[in-house]
Task: inverse folding
């Protein structure tokens, strides 16, 4: 296996700018499809736990041998979930001898964060006030 650095598409510094924020502009078809793949990968409790275990590991990477015992699932099932996280651009890996080591790719999470972040502009404040008024009216 080569030691050359691979570039993951969408992980560059401008990746957070690829998709408009939720309150700034509607997504086009391609942007929505791209983000949906990432959200779908995060839509499973096992994958969320795997991402959390990988991201919270001291040193920033974890061996698959340390991930498998945390679940009551077979090794092939864990590998399948890790593959889906990799395909979504949330994690990457490298084989070292007989083991595979995983680490998080923060650029993808930054994209999701930028999309979900609501800017505190006058329009956003107005929308928040309207939502609060609707919620209060519905519960009364």
Result:
């Amino acid at each position: 296996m080569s030691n050359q650095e691979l570039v993951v598409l969408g992980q560059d510094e401008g990746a957070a700018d690829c998709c408009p924020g939720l309150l700034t502009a509607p997504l086009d078809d391609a942007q929505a499809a791209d983000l949906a793949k990432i959200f779908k990968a995060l839509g499973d409790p096992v994958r969320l736990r795997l991402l959390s275990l990988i991201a919270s590991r001291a040193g920033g990477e974890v061996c698959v041998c340390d991930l498998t015992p945390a679940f009551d699932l077979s090794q092939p099932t864990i590998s399948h979930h890790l593959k889906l996280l990799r395909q979504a651009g949330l994690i990457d890996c490298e084989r070292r001898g007989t083991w595979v080591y995983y680490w998080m790719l923060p650029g993808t999470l930054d994209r999701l964060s930028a999309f979900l972040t609501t800017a505190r502009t006058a329009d956003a404040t107005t929308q928040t006030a309207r939502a609060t008024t609707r919620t209060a009216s519905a519960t009364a």
About this structure: The helical segments are 29-42, 45-55, 64-67, 75-87, 106-116, 122-139. Residues 1-17 have pLDDT under 50 and may be disordered. The chain has six helices and three strands.
